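$ ./design --mode recover --in tokens.txt
reading tokens...
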């Protein structure tokens, strides 16, 4: 079932629309506090029941996320998935896997996942024709969602999507549904609940453990497979769901100069990630050769996942 959702993040008066998949009662959240606008039963955003359902689903998602994303959990996931011993495949094969998988769980989806990736990439390409690395970043930024796939352990939604945040230091108030952190084992741990926690001022986000999800996983995959993409691309991949930082300017005390530079690109990228869900269909076969050439330029032919 497909539902169109609204992101209650407002930019001026613009309400950002995003598309998510809904498989039975599971909702896929992508880097943001998201909510259904109309579902396939025709409930609208204003419908009281649909509205309260939406709130419950999103709250429950963040309740689970905030309770479980702890230092121990992140360490465990980084260690487990850092082995990269599950699958060997190319970047394009992963696009197809994600596509097929999303299609399977979502038979009514009118735009396959690959189109979100390509729409993001193509919109960036139109406005920044010379930044080919940014086009490729658009294409691959969500590939970590394969964590939802059986082959990757079929992780629960709260361990794959949604806003991300650092663990090992105090949870900033700007995190959505902050109250649920009270049930996180780190919340009352004096080693982890001060402003800096286990980190030092300006240590750089590279040295910070982020809550586990598709962002950190794809970052790991790209880095460990020795991509030649610039650091701004890796920054975008790892932090595109880190809304407390790129939307609310929180956690700046963990950033270094390079992070501040890269943040400029992330802010540019984020607009395309959110707004590119246009109704313009992409002719996949037509643009495929261009993206294959970029993949060849920046990645080995087969990657370890
Ligand atoms: Fe994402
Ligand atoms: Fe995305």
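writing sequence...
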């Amino acid at each position: 079932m497909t539902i169109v959702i609204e992101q209650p993040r407002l930019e001026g008066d613009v309400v950002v629309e995003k598309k998510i998949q809904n498989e039975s009662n599971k909702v896929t959240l992508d880097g943001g506090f998201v909510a259904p606008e109309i579902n396939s039963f025709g409930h609208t955003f204003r419908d009281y029941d649909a509205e309260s359902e939406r709130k419950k689903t999103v709250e429950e998602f963040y309740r689970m996320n905030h309770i479980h994303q702890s230092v121990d959990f992140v360490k465990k996931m980084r260690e487990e998935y850092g082995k990269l011993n599950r699958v060997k495949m190319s970047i394009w094969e992963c696009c197809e896997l994600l596509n097929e998988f999303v299609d399977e769980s979502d038979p009514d989806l009118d735009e396959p996942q690959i189109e979100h990736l390509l729409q993001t990439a193509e919109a960036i390409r139109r406005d920044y024709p010379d930044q080919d690395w940014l086009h490729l970043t658009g294409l691959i930024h969500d590939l970590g969602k394969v964590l939802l796939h059986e082959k990757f352990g079929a992780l629960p939604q709260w361990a794959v999507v949604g806003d991300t945040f650092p663990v090992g230091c105090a949870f900033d108030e700007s995190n959505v549904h902050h109250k649920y952190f009270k049930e996180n084992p780190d919340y009352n741990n004096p080693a982890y609940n001060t402003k800096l926690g286990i980190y030092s001022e300006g240590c750089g986000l590279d040295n910070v453990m982020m809550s586990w999800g598709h962002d950190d996983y794809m970052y790991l995959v790209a880095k460990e497979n020795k991509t030649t993409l610039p650091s701004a691309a890796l920054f975008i991949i790892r932090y595109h769901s880190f809304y407390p930082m790129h939307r609310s300017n929180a956690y700046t005390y963990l950033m270094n100069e390079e992070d501040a530079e890269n943040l400029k690109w992330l802010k540019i990228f984020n607009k395309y990630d959110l707004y590119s869900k246009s109704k313009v269909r992409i002719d996949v076969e037509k643009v495929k050769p261009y993206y294959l050439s970029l993949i060849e330029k920046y990645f080995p032919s087969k990657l370890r996942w």
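exit 0
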